[in-house]
Amino acid sequence: GVFAHLEMLEARAHEAAVKQEETEQQEEKLARLKARVQELRLQRDELRAKVDLQQKGQLGKEGVLSDPAQPSARAVLEWKIKSVKAMLQVFYLTGISGKLTKRGVCFCISTAYEGTYLDSYHLDLLTKAEVQIHRHSVPIFIPLEQIAKKYLQTDIRRFLSVLSDHLNAYAGRRYQADQLQDRFSDRIEGTLQRNSLCNLLVFNYNVSSKSKTFPFNVRLLYGDLCCSLPTEVTVSCTPDAPASLAETAAAHSDLFRRVALHKAFRSFSSAEESVD
Fold first, then answer.
1. Which residue, among 84, 110, 86, 105, has the nearest Cα to 37 in the 3D structure?
2. Coiled-coil segments, which residues (predicted)?
3. What is the pLDDT of residue 61?
4. From CA 260, how far away is CA 266, in angstroms rounded?
5. Please, are residues 173 and 195 in contact by the beta-carbon 8 Å criterion?
């Protein structure tokens, strides 16, 4: 009777897990559809605003025809404010929120990695004739100036999207390095070396073979600053290590390219425990 009851509980737990997964998938699909709807609405509003600007620009003072390519500063400002309001609704579903201020708009970019919330960064923009960054909390090593120079005046949505990619990738790299130090300190030999941007990590860790321990040296380079996985991986062992460890180093190198750093180490540990 006990085993039958346990089987019944396991079946119920499995059924509940399946239903929860289906619910989460439906919620994700709904969020994507909502984001798409908001994006289409924004495009519609932008087209309407452009038409309004053309109509206003064609009729100057006392019915004199003016240059349609030169709308008034007020009309441009009104169009920018309207576009920003619509844009705030779109980005709310992607980790970017914002609110209008007296002189422009203030954005908050939230970062996360694999469902874990990490940090938030703020960006205060002035929406005058030319959009300007008034204040921000973006780290100095994030290429904010270059991103702004490329997108801020022509495409604010693209500017925020690229900046968010940089911040989330940095947060993900830092999170992985922190997890490695916190959860696998017994395997790390010495100190994990990393720069401010966390796009270069160097460390040593121990690998056992035939009752002996050999250090592996690792160098991870993240050439794509919008990515949380390395583009270049070098794993090497000492000259006196057995030849079989060369294959292990190659396998570890491949895993570092595909899997988050702390998950790769978890895989190493599980494999070694199963061998033992």
1. 86
2. 6-57
3. 44
4. 10
5. no
Q: How confident is the model at residue 116 (pLDDT cuts 50, 70, 90)?
A: confident
Helix (H, G, I), strand (E, B), or coil: what is residue 105? strand
Pick from 178, 274, 157, 172: which is nearest to 226 by CA? 172
Please name the residues in contact with 116: beta carbons below 8 A apart, sequence gap of 6 or more.
175
Q: How far apart are CA 114 and CA 276, in angstroms?
A: 31
Is a pLDDT exceeding 70 seen at residue 245?
Answer: yes
Residue 65 gets which letter from DSSP?
B
pLDDT at 275 over 50: no
Eight-class DSSP state of 46:
H
Look at residue 80 and give its three-state secondary structure: helix
CA distance 194 to 180: 12
Instruction: Output the CA torsion sign for 64, 67, 68, 72.
Output: negative
Residues paired with 219 in a beta bridge: 202, 234
Helices 144-151 and 156-183, packing angle to 10 deg: 160
* Beta carbons within 8 Å of 130's beta carbon, 6+ residues apart: 153
Task: Return the pLDDT at 144.
Answer: 96
Helix 73-91, helix 156-183: angle, nearest 10: 30
Instruction: Copy the structure tokens of residue 122.
Output: 């703020």
Q: Which residues contact 249 (CB under 8 A, 6 or more apart)?
A: 216, 235, 236, 237
CA dist 12 and 8 (Å) reads: 6
